[in-house]
Amino acid sequence: MIVFPAIDIYEGKAVRLQKGDFNAVTKYGDYPADMAQRWADLGAQYLHVVDLDGALAGASRNTDPIKEILKRVSIPIEVGGGIRTLDDVKMMLDLGVDRVILGSVAVKDPQLVAEACKLYGEKIVVGIDAKDGIVAVNGWGESGEMRSEDLARDMAAVGVKTIIYTDISRDGMLSGVNIDATVKLAQASGIGVVASGGVSSLDDIRAVKAHEKDGVVGVITGKAIYDGRLDLKEAFKLAAE
Fold first, then answer.
1. Mind giving me the DSSP string for 149-208?
2. How buried is residue 159: exposed, middle or buried, by Cβ count under 10 Å (0-12/13-18/19+)?
3. In terms of DSSP bridges, do strands 47-51 and 124-131 run parallel, antiparallel, or are they unpaired?
4. 8 in active site
5. Distance (Å, rounded) from C-alpha 46 to C-alpha 74?
6. What torsion, rounded to 10 degrees, do the Cα atoms 108, 219, 157, 183 define?
7. Low-confidence spans in the chain with pLDDT less than 70
8. Are 199 and 179 in contact (CB under 8 A)?
9. Known catalytic membership, residue 214
10. Do residues 231 and 225 make contact, with C-beta atoms less than 8 angstroms apart?
């Protein structure tokens, strides 16, 4: 299982939101690349990066900070936020990003996801962000009007191999991972799912780890590591057991 430290970029800074609310922003650093270096130095295998401005605008807005991260660390990174076209996907991969996360477009244009999977295979990941089991799109500001499990099945059918599932109600709240919903998504789709939202302690890492056999292949942590509540080295050790 992989533990992914998260780096959310808003107006060029490293931040965290609460429940996806852009009125509840906490800034953790002026330079996202510094955070990337910090997590890499602690032993991170992979980084999860989100362009929050891009998610709102529907087009990438923080390519410069992403380029800086790629210069600073040698570990792979995945990037999401505002990636809505095949040209956007190619641009990110050409920068050196290892995996591209498609979110809103998975709801609005599943055929594009199918084409991306044909072109780039497992470099394409779909992010399913949900409130009460209903998919949210466009920076989490709108309902996608479909159930997360239905979208997961559709994405598996077009060739997606990995889904990142975020329970928006728990994101940035340190309230524990929604294990039940994450496992249901993995079982419904039959593909690997990365849990996101609510990690607060090593107990959450253990809880996710216990469901590897169900198809839960990783977990993303953000606020807990920025606030020092989660010992990242211990989390990496636990995940590797």
1. HHHHHHHHHTT--EEEEEEGGGTTTTS---HHHHHHHHHHH-SEEEEES---SHHHHHHH
2. middle
3. unpaired
4. yes
5. 10
6. -110
7. 139-144
8. no
9. no
10. no
Length of the chain equals: 241
Specify the pTM: 0.94
Q: Residue type for 125, please?
A: V
State the catalytic residue, choosing from 51, 53, 88, 129: 129
Q: At 79, list the tokens.
A: 């990037």
Q: Which residues contact 23 (CB under 8 A, 6 or more apart)?
A: none
| pLDDT for position 142 | 66
pLDDT by residue (tens digit) across 122-139?
999 999 999 888 998 876
| Backbone dihedral angles phi then psi of residue 144, each to the nearest 5 degrees | -85, -5
Are 130 and 119 a contacting pair, CB within 8 Å? no
Type of residue numbered 117: C
> Helix (H, G, I), strand (E, B), or coil: what is residue 227?
coil
Structural domains in the chain, sorted by start: 2-240 (3.20.20.70)
Are residues 79 and 50 in contact, defined by beta-carbon separation less than 8 angstroms? yes
Q: What is the CA radius of gyration of the chain?
A: 16
Place of tokens 């477009």: 105
Q: What is the pLDDT of residues 16-51, one digit of tens each?
A: 888 777 888 899 999 999 999 999 999 999 999 999
* Short-list 205, 135, 128, 197, CA closest to 168: 197
- What pLDDT score was predicted for residue 17? 86
CA 204 to chain centre: 17
DSSP string, 95-140: HT-SEEEE-HHHHH-HHHHHHHHHHHGGGEEEEEEEETTEEEETTT
Backbone phi, then psi, for 201, in 5-degree steps? Answer: -160, 175
